[in-house]
């Protein structure tokens, strides 16, 4: 980030009114001197997000998400800091230093340019005479020229090395073309990697073309149906979800995301008006892909292929998503192999109806567990019930009760036996949750005071001077570090405000999280010198109380009478001060 100066970042932040920026995304309602909105970062039903025009900060009191205008864009758009900076700059008409921004963002600029050229080459091919049969194939599948252009679908011709020759004319080396998976080198023979295939570009989360998927269309039996770009420096399959870049705004609007198995399925749904759809890049979701989905904070509907592989993939990916605390629903289409074929056979409205009636993942799994079991057989029934109870053990109490009641009724099993088996004890659970909650939320006078002191210091530099004169340090290492950063920032910039300091501290995740907590706790705090000094007094008293405890321990251990008397005198004086 050092390549973009803090002064430029702060200039953008100062010109970007957080209320104006957030109102582009959320409906804000004025409440006193602040604004409130339904928080997009958790399942919020009443406004819990507060936006302060005065402080140029936002905070949610429920999920404790907060920060400045850049933080909001990063979280809402699911982008990095520099992308958020660019988005905010664009919104206010600020021209960033393109060279500096490019140097940071495009460390693989040459690779992206090469892939973009290849995309345009393939796209151009499909609209030539050589692309007639490919266009006919796509037309038969309901993909017209407008959709081809929207998704930049192209064609690799039968030519052995046409793309390679074009790149050699541009002085692009074989090494980089090979590393990007665009050519195949066999001894001295060099060939294009894709031949005689429809080409679907694969974009990363930012919309850069990083790879391609090539599909046969002439019915060749000896070829794999699909071949994809190998993993490269810019193409990491486990970090990408097909069509994410195009779908992310629709996902926010619709408040759920549909996951399909194939690229063509995603293209067909999107071109039919269902824009909030993405496709897997393999059989199972990776950790990185799951994190991407989790950040969206919306339910996921799995609508995978209607075959045994798709059934098993639904179970596997559903389990992955559930483990990540993502709300999962399932659509299992009947009669056709995949969503693309289903739409062609039954129409888009029939598919929409399936989506509308998506079932809870738990319902799906309980049906799945019946596979290969004869429930009229005692052993199979016992096995099934045990599997069901194992599935339910991590669900909430209401879900457990509903399914236990259903199983009890369906199979004439005493519900109390099922409850004992699954170890449901509502009173203990509630008691345990209450203890944990109180432990997490209860703060001492000292904690409240230190939070207020640090908040004052981030708001107005005069409190930094008072802090240095009256206190100078905190007992805890993390708070000392944050205080040092505040003092340093003020010295460097000869001023401080909380919105700009938040941008600065983003680079240190632990301290950034602490800053957000402090803002959350003090968003309604009235800044005053009397309040600040009162908090300093509380902290000094706490420090002296700790010193008293330490002195008492020293006195117990000290064997020298003279030294012991000196310690007792020191202890007496400290007690008087307290």
Task: Give an overview in words.
By secondary structure, the chain is α+β, with helices and mostly antiparallel strands. It has five domains: 6-105, Alpha-Beta Complex (DNA Primase, Chain A), CATH 3.90.580.10; 109-235, Alpha-Beta Complex (DNA primase DNAg catalytic core, N-terminal domain); 239-367, Dna Topoisomerase Vi A Subunit, Chain: A, domain 2 (3-Layer(aba) Sandwich), CATH 3.40.1360.10; 369-439, no CATH class; 445-577. It has 28 helices and 16 strands. Helix 14 links the parallel strand 14 (300-302) and strand 15 (328-330). Helix 1 crosses helix 4, helix 1 crosses helix 25 and helix 12 (263-271) runs parallel beside helix 15. The protein is globular, with a radius of gyration of 31 Å.
Count of runs of 4 or more consecutive helical residues = 28
Mean pLDDT: 86
> Which runs of at least 5 residues are low in confidence (pLDDT < 50)?
424-441
Estimate the strand proportion: 5-15%
What is the approximate shape?
A: globular
Helix and strand content put the structural class at alpha+beta
Radius of gyration: 31 Å
Terminus-to-terminus distance? 47 Å
Give the count of structural domains.
5
Find the count of extended strands (DSSP E, 2+ residues).
16
Which strands sit side by side, in order, in the main sheet? Answer: 1-2-3-4-5
Residues in helices, as a percent range:
55-70%
Largest sheet: 5 strands, antiparallel
